[in-house]
Amino acid sequence: MSAQAFDRGYRSPRYYPVYLDLRGRRCVVVGGGGVALARAQGLVDAGADVAVISPESCSGLEDLAARGQIRLLRRPYRRGDLSGVRLAIDAGDDAPAAQDMGREAEESGTLLNFHDRPAGSTFITPAVVDRHPLLIAISTCGESPYAAAELRRRLAASFGEEWGQMVSLMGRVRRRLRESGSSPTLQRKVFRRLMTAEVRRLLRQGQAEAVGTLAARLAAGDASGPRPGALVGAGPGDPALPTMAAREVLGKAGVPFHDARVPPDVLALRPPEATLVDVGQRPGRPGPLQAAITAPLLERARAGLRVVRPRGGDLLVFSRGGEELRKLTRTGGSATVVPDVSSVLAVPAAADVPLTMGGVASSVGVVAGQEGSTQGCPSGLEAVAAAVDTLVVLLPLRHLQEILARLAAVRGAAWPAVLLGRARGQDETVVRGGVGELAQAARRAGITAPATLVAGRVVGAAAAERRCPEPPPTCPRALGQGDAQHD
Length: 487
Description:
alpha/beta, Cobalt-precorrin-4 Transmethylase, domain 1, 4 domains, 17 strands, elongated
């Protein structure tokens, strides 16, 4: 089917998002089923004066009426029911009555919504994550209620009840700060101290008293105290891989010191006023001396700025992350480490290469391809390769030919291997073959840093599983079931 057949020229209207104060305002819901109940309950929660009009009603509506929360008019809608009404919702199935409602709403200026029918509605109801006083509304402008519901489910899982408690707390602190005439700069500092994962963790654990003590101190204008630095794993290059904890820390960074392996999409998580510092490290090229990085980092930390060091690749594996952590902790403050998704695991996974496999490999070794000896090539390479089933070599390009030759001498030229360049990026390059032929294939492919080498029987086994040239009798393809997937 063509795109034109799907589209047919329809364009959904662009709505203006707004939250209405309906406290004490007259509102009407027409209909007696589950949808009418949900809409009526939402209006009751908002403090509205609610009337539900329907000849028949579900037990939930009967309960609301019995508790005096709504007025239940057991009859069909009739003209005049919208007189003096601020907002109305038609959740019924009477088409002629809906037309009459539309005309009356237009004449009276009543906001009107037809359930699941954007056409003719003057407003639409969003999917809502309710963490009062935090309300997160999701709208697709009427295009896809399913998408809105799915987004609500995902956001509800990410924003627990503690978010509502935290927002209430911030509201109380905000009023105190304004009453005391605190500057906007101080207010922003206070809010950043409150809107943290640690505060939400305390609230989840029921430690509201400890949070209240902190809030009272901050509201009194004491936003001082150490500014801990943070070493943050930014992932192996895919902007989707930094953890939620990493994203939160970056979102509060004062001065992010970053290298070229940190994707721009990840750096964009910083606050607008944060000052980016490029430390000059580039994949495949020697960067500045570590002292040239840590000196300004320490200087900013001592000045009381929130220093964050996002690192691409691996945070504490074959990097200078350990040195930077030690330097940060010597400033008299503290430093936190936000773990990353290690490229040791993520990069092979990008090529569908498991590091272990039942009956094939049960041990893994990891070496650095450019450190360990006076020549730069790893000095313990042969010993590790001989001792493990799967070998991972990080940053191998500078000495690739020598590394592959030494592996061939230990495990044979046919030992299966895969070389991945810029894994999980748009320009990812993958070359497979025995260690004896891989160097030439890598040159032809033009692989560039950062790169990772994985060698072992798992490489050949994984490739054979994908090809499945002679499916076993239990394979659906062998049983004549086309290209169905199989375990």
